[in-house]
TrEMBL record:
Native source organism of the sequence: Clostridium thermosuccinogenes
Similarity field: Belongs to the V-ATPase 116 kDa subunit family.
Record-given protein name: Uncharacterized protein
Membrane topology: Multi-pass membrane protein
GO biological process, alphabetically ordered: vacuolar acidification
Amino acid sequence: MSILKMKFVSIVGLNEYFDDFVLKYIVDSGMQLENALSYLETVKGLTPYDGNNPYYDLVTRSTALVNAMGLKKELKESTDSTRQIYDSADEIRSDIAKLEEEYRGHSEHLEKTKEMLNKCIHMEKQLELLANIDVDIKAFFNFEFIKFRFGKMPRKSYEQLQLMSNDLEAIAIPVSQEKDFIWLIYFTPRNFSEKVDGIFSSLYFERTRISDEVQGTPSQALRQVRDKITSLRSEMKDAEKAIRDFTSKHREKAINLYYSSMRLNRVSEVRKYAAHTMKSFYIIGWMPEKELNRLIPILDKDEKIIYIHKEPDTEKLSHPPTELKNNRIFRPFETLVRMYGLPSYNEVDPTPFVALTYFLMFGFMFGDVGQGLVILAGGIFMLFKLKIAFGGVILGAGISSTLFGFVYGSVFGFEDWLPPLWMNPMHDINTMLIAGIGMGMALIIVAMVLNIVNGIKAHDLARIFLDKNGIPGFVFYLGGIVSVVYFYLNNKLMVSAGITAAILLIPILLMFFKEPIENFIHKRKAIAQSKGVFFVQTFFELFDVVLSFLSNTISFIRLSAFALNHVGLFMAVFILAEMASGFGSVVAIIIGNILIIGLEGLIVGIQGLRLEYYELFSRFFTGNGKPYKPLKKQYFS
C-alpha cells in the first residue's frame, strides 16, 4: 500500500565494456533509463551513440517466426525469467535460420498443395458444365474456328471486363468465385484470339490448361479431377500435421530465440539513452531501491565501472517514476486511480483510500443482498475467468452492496425477508439524508489530512500551513462543523463567541494572505499587482473557497438520494408486478431487478467515481506522476 521506492543511479565504464556490461547487469533489470546527454552537459566530449541496431534482424525474424508458428498468445502468457537465453547473436541467427528453413519447407509444401487443390476444385466446376459432351477433352480445347480458355482473374478486373463486354469479340462465363478472384471460361473466334488473349492478359487473367491435367472425355476427366482432389486433401492434412508436429517440437526453442533476440535488442535501446566519450560510457536512470541493494555487492566487485546512487530528494533534474505497490485486495482499485492520473513519487498512494471510500459509497447507495450477490458473481467472473482487473472493483462493489443490503434489510427489493440491521431508507428519510452528509464530511476531512501529509512529504510549507486544503482549511471546516452541530444539539456555542470567531477567522486570514506570505518567505515583492486588485480578487477567491466547502459537503447528499431512489424503483416494480398478477408478476420482478442492476448499478458506480474525483481527489491528489517503465518490460511486443 505504497509507492515503490526508487534511487537515481549513474554508471560510468570503459567503452569497450559497454555491450558486456549492459547484457550482464542492465537489460534484465528494473532500471528506467534517462537521457544521459540531458544530465551530463558538463562532461567534455560527450556524444550520443549512433542509431545503428545490429540486432534488428534478430527481432524481426524471431517475431515473424513465432507469429507464423502461432505462438503469439504464448508470448503474452510467459516470462523470460525461466527460459534458456542465448547471449551470442551469431548463434541466434544460425538457429533461427535452421528453423526458418525447415518451417518454410513445410509451409511452402502446404501452400502448394492448397493451390493445387483450389485449382482442381475450380476445374471440377468447369468440367461439370461439360460432363454431357462426348468429345475428347483435347479436341474440345482445339476447335478449328473457336478458342476456349479457362482460368481466374481479380474481381476488380472482372468488373472492368463487364464494362467492355459489348465491344469484346468473346463470350465470358463465370464458373465460380473466391474472395478476391473470379473463375471463368471464355470463347473467342480463332482469328480474334490473339487480340482477346492480350486483353484478358492485361486484366491479369491467369489461365489454367485443363487439357494438360486430364485426359479422355469431360466425364472421364471429371472423375480424374475428383480422384486428384481426394488425394490432395489427404496430402494437405499430412502437410498440416507436419507443421503442427514442427511447432510442437520446436515451440520452446522458438520462444527462447524470440526472448533472446529481444534481450539483445535492449542493448540497442540502452544505446539510445546512453552517451560516451572517447574512453567511457555513461548510463543513468531510476532503479527500485531493493533491486539496487541486491546489485550493489556485484557492482562493487567490477573494476571496469564506477557508479553512484542518490536519493530522489537530492536529484533536481529528474523526477522519479511512480509504481503503485498494493496488495491483492486493493490492487484492482488502481484502475480507478490511473483513470485520474498517477500520484507523484512523493505523494501518498490514494489506492487504499479509493478502495475503502468507493466500497462504502457504492453499498450506501445500492444496498441489496440479492442484487449485491449478482454483482459479486459478475465481478468474480470478470476477475478470474476473463482476467479483467476491473472485475476486482465490481467484486468489491458486490460485497459492499450485499453488506449494506443486510443493513437495510433488502433482498431483491423485498424488505420483509430479512430484518434490517439498522433501518430501511424509506422509513426514516431524514436520518438517511443526515447519514449521507455525515459520511461526506468525514471523507472531506480525511482528504484534507491526506493533503497535509502530501505537503509534509513534499516539504511544501505553503501547502501545509496556508492552503485551503491544508491546516487552515482543516481547522476552518472542522471547527465550523463542530460549532454548528454542537449549537444544533445544545442550543448554545461549545466555547465562547470570541474563541469560536478566532477558530474560524484565523484560518480564513491565513488563506487570504497566502500569496503575500509566500512571497515574503521567498524574498519577493509581497503583492505583485496593485493592492486593490489583490484584495478584490482574493476576496472573491476566498468566498468561492467557503462556498465550495458547503457545496462539496451538500454534494454527498446524493449518497442518500440514490439509496432512496433504489427503494423507490423497487416500489414501482412491485406496483407493476401487482398489476400483472400470477406468473406475469414474477416476470415483472425479474425484469425489474435486471434493469435496476444494469441501469441504476451503472449510474451509482459513476456517481461514486464523481464523488471520488471531484469532491475528494481535488483536495489532495495532483495525478502528475510519471509511469514506471522498466527496461526488462518495456520492449517486448
